[in-house]
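Schema walk-through. Below, the input block comes first and the output block second. Nothing else is stored per chain. Lengths vary across the set, and this one has 361 residues.
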Amino acid sequence: MVAPPSALKTTITGLIRSSPRVLVLGDITPASLAPADPDKPALIPQMHNRITLFPTLSSLAERDPREAGRLLSLLESIYDGRFRRDTAQGTREYIVDTVVIGTLTPEVYENRFLSAMISYGSRFLIFRYTPPDELSRKVSQIFEHAASERVLKVLREDTSSKLTEALDTIARKDIDSVIIPPDLKEDLETLGELLAKLRIIFRQVKYYDSGSGRWITEIEVSQYDVPIRSTLQLKIFAKCNALIRNVPKIVGLPVVDERAVRLAARLALGGSYGTMTQLLLEIARSTTAVSQRALAAILKLSPSTVNRYLKAMHQVGVLLSADPPIIESKYLKVVRKYLAKVPNIAQNGSNGSDEENNDGV
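--- output ---
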């Protein structure tokens, strides 16, 4: 979860920390996950069949970048259901089924985590939000009230209790039974492709062209995801979202709806660079062709920055053309359908309809 300072990240994650199915951690090291000494306790068994909650991941950001990257890769490896550590004293291997939840500010995420996450083939889904000003004022007024702490205590107890009940009663077969209508299934598959292509590592390279006698600047893409995992993640997320909200009005199985897919769409764009997401949304909102210079002026970015990100999106097939920028039709369709009303998902302000605000916070 990526949000600015004082955006209630700790308060929101705190709503579930009272559940016995949640393990709260402040920091980790490779040794704490699975010590080399088999007689010392390991964290991994405590994480099994629980949610692993980091109220903040900032402690990782303060480490040396290589060490932080190594810890990220260890957390990523847990996603696959097994954890193994080889040491001079032998091999320690565990089966582990957990969901890792953590929070970061946009500055720390963009500058310390994003490239490392993409480089290791990220399993993390990123949800970005910024409470709109009106909601922030209302929340501030609530916290000024003498009864606010009592209200929060009740909320924490109730939310933690409901989470425990859900985790104790919902089985994988229940998730598998959720129906995805064909049109929404197609949208989720397109969003999975988009998520994979926006998880991109690229750089700007220069070379001298002896034929023209000029220095040429090009964008070199070194990595982006294959959309197998990302598509599966978004489908499972949408199914779980529909399942957890299901209050049957008629007899039948839960069905994924547009609200679930809209949240999945926010996850699809949330894991990319903020600038890239800003550009994609601004192009999608425009009803006429928009130039790179106009985009730079609207978003208050330098023309060279706009050109660099648009070229990268063009190379991976998100854009049909970088100048003028034209979004591939299938991606344009889902972005306009689910995200065009969100003013700036890169910073995750959501001051649209009440329904959008409820999805965001």
